[in-house]
Write a structure and sequence with these properties.
21 helices, Helix Hairpins, Lyase, Ornithine Decarboxylase, Chain A, domain 1, binds pyridoxal-5'-phosphate, ten-stranded mixed beta sheet, Methane Monooxygenase Hydroxylase, Chain G, domain 1
């Protein structure tokens, strides 16, 4: 069966379909379904975020492999080094995993704020690089000096001339009268003419928030020389924006930056030895080949960077610089998968059991019923057309007052049942007409997650993420699907789109479970996620594999419970607690035993998170008097 979820486009073979399930293509290849069921058995019922450290490792391995291969191929003399930009994902289960799986490389962390800097200082192995970008004040620069004094290999990237003046000031404080001053290395972020493409392009280019202009770069060099800091200036840095779909803007930026680098070397920046090309390496999120997002491979990316730097160095007769990357999205996105249970299907409930046929029905309805009973493969198209014709006539009869609401309901049910049956019978003749009919009977899937919390870039930027069911993959999904999250906000809807259609299975949620998985959610989504409606970061777990290849679920962190959420919003937890107790104690509507019963249940609920357990609570409170 051809796969309707485009797994071969976006999954990089990390996930495969085996029989009815989607499985992890690693070790003993467990299915997402068995992992999900295992964790849910322990009582964790809402959405689940699964992290796969082996996928972080795979990306880091690939990055180093391709750059080292390109270096060999072009006989490039400089080193290749990389850091992970923390803004992409600062969650401890992720950061600890990335530090763990990258030990064999000299892989470091990049920080853009004071809090991120503290994470970098405490998690980067001594000797591995730390780079510090973004706007900085005196305190932040002082923290960088402290890190240098701890023995860290740390580089401050200057984003403006003011920062350089602060560095001079802080240096005086830290290294007063010292014959062997200890200080961070210095980098300069350059402002390029070239800018990136796509929705994130604003972080590069001439009107960018960041970087020094040519004039400022020259002034900075002057200042560095005056204050004897020029020998600490070793890196230039640029970042042309995230999710760079095409390679051309990068090449342009590399040429521009390469020539700035060469010029600075000639002007006496003798310690200058590295060029940091920032992030931007893109990820394929598309599930349909018509909307693919990137036009290059990692191999091409590495070749271009190494080749262009080689070429520029040769033409300017300078030493080939070390190459740094700060890829974030490329490293982190594949490691996290959000699994969310479907709670309910809101179809236009058309089940045969809802028919209310009368003793005597209008003739056209009798005829519809006969069509429904007799439809088969050879007559399907004809009967389908007849029923659509009858539908029009019956609706007109209703408008004119000749048939009643029950008749109208029977009409709608019968026609929809006939459409569904004919779609199944004619499934091998994928005609446009059938497609259109199928799209008309869209189902709304109510899913236990918050798009605002777990897919903020979908809400804010229209970024799509691959989504598919984790079971039933051996049967053809027939329902054109719209996904509703459980927030009370109409933006929390992933609508059905005819150009990039999503089909899901027809299921009876009362008797079977059905889960959707959202893939590639490991970059940016978690920390950008917001608590709209007070839905919090979902319960998360790290999936590791033992020597036998069996998976184990480690480091489970539960979603915040209701009281923690309120406390986070600066409500006084004790006051809320007291108020709830008071209202139950003082209620004249309850007797003593009922009060006890309700209090017990209330405390149980307060200890749980905001996500739904089931759609109808099966634990009815006993309020009988
Ligand atoms: C955001 C950012 C990155 C990471 O970009 P990706 O597109 O996620 O690789 C790298 N460097 C800097 C300076 C950034 O601001």
């Amino acid at each position: 069966m051809n796969n309707p979820y485009g797994i071969h486009i976006w999954s990089e073979n990390n996930f495969i379909i085996q029989g009815s399930t989607v499985n992890i293509n690693y070790a003993n290849k467990p299915s997402l379904l068995e992992i999900t069921q295992d964790i849910r058995k322990k009582g964790h019922k809402g959405p689940l975020l699964l992290r796969f450290p082996h996928l972080i490792k795979k990306q880091i391995d690939k990055l180093y492999f391709e750059f080292n291969r390109a270096k060999k191929e072009f006989e490039y003399q400089g080193d290749f080094q990389a850091v992970f930009p923390l803004k992409v994902n600062q969650f401890p289960n992720f950061v600890n995993s990335i530090v763990e799986v990258s030990r064999e490389y000299n892989y470091g962390l990049e920080a853009g704020s004071k809090a991120e800097l503290i994470i970098a200082i405490t998690h980067t192995p001594i000797g591995s690089p730390i780079t510090v970008n973004g706007f900085k004040d005196k305190e932040m620069i002082s923290l960088c000096f402290m890190a240098a004094y701890m023995g860290h290999n740390i580089t401050i990237t200057i984003e403006g001339l003011g920062e350089l003046e602060t560095i001079v000031e802080v240096d005086r404080e830290f290294n007063k009268n010292s014959s062997k001053p200890i200080r961070p290395q210095i980098g300069i972020r350059i402002r390029l003419h070239s800018s990136g493409v796509g929705i994130w392009a604003k972080s590069g280019g001439y009107s960018s928030k960041f970087g020094l202009t040519s004039t400022e770069i020259l002034e900075a060099c002057q200042l560095l020389k005056e204050h004897n800091l020029i020998d600490n200036f070793w890196m230039i840095h640029f970042h042309i924006g995230s999710q760079m779909g095409e390679i051309a803007p990068l090449k342009k930026a590399l040429r521009e930056a390469g020539h700035i680098y060469a010029d600075l070397k000639k002007r006496g920046a003798n310690a200058l030895n590295a060029i940091n090309i920032g992030g931007g390496l893109a990820v394929e999120y598309a599930q349909h080949k018509t909307v693919k997002e990137l036009n290059y491979s990692l191999k091409e990316f590495a070749n271009d960077v190494v080749f262009l730097m080689k070429e520029i160095s040769k033409s300017k007769s300078i030493k080939e610089p070390d190459i740094f990357t700060e890829s974030g999205r490329f490293i982190a996105s594949s490691h996290a998968v959000l699994i969310a249970p479907v709670l309910e299907l809101f179809s236009q409930e058309y089940h045969a059991k809802s028919l209310r046929l009368k003793e005597k029905n209008p003739p056209l309805i009798e005829e519809l019923y006969a069509l429904y009973k007799a439809i088969n493969r050879s007559n399907a198209r004809e009967y389908l057309h007849d029923s659509l014709d009858h539908l029009e006539s019956l609706l007109t009869l209703f408008d004119l007052g000749y048939i009643d609401l029950e008749d109208r309901s029977n009409t709608e049910i019968l026609v929809n049942l006939i459409i569904k049956k004919s779609i199944l019978l004619l499934k091998n003749e994928d005609t446009n007409e059938l497609q259109k009919l199928q799209d008309r009977i869209q189902e709304k899937y109510l899913v236990n997650f918050s798009a605002f919390q777990s897919l903020p870039d979908f809400w804010g930027l229209g970024q799509s993420f691959p989504v598919m069911p984790i079971d039933k993959l051996d049967t053809k999904p027939t329902n054109p699907a719209t996904i509703w999250d459980i927030t009370c906000d109409s933006d929390g809807e992933i609508g059905f789109n005819r150009d990039t259609p999503l089909y899901l299975h027809d299921i009876d949620i009362d008797t079977e479970e059905y889960f959707l998985a959202f893939f590639l959610t490991g970059a940016y989504q978690e920390v950008l996620g917001m608590k709209h409606n007070l839905f919090t970061h979902p319960t998360e777990v790290v999936i590791n594999f033992d020597k036998e290849g069996n998976y184990k679920a480690d480091n489970l962190i539960e979603a915040q419970n209701l009281m923690d959420v309120l406390e986070d919003m600066d409500y006084n937890r004790n006051l809320i607690d007291k108020q709830l107790k008071y209202m139950i104690e003082e209620s004249s509507l309850l007797n003593h035993k009922q009060k006890e019963n309700i209090l017990g249940k209330l405390y149980l609920y307060l200890s749980e998170n905001s996500y739904l357990k089931t759609i109808q609570s099966n634990q009815e409170i006993d309020c009988e008097r």
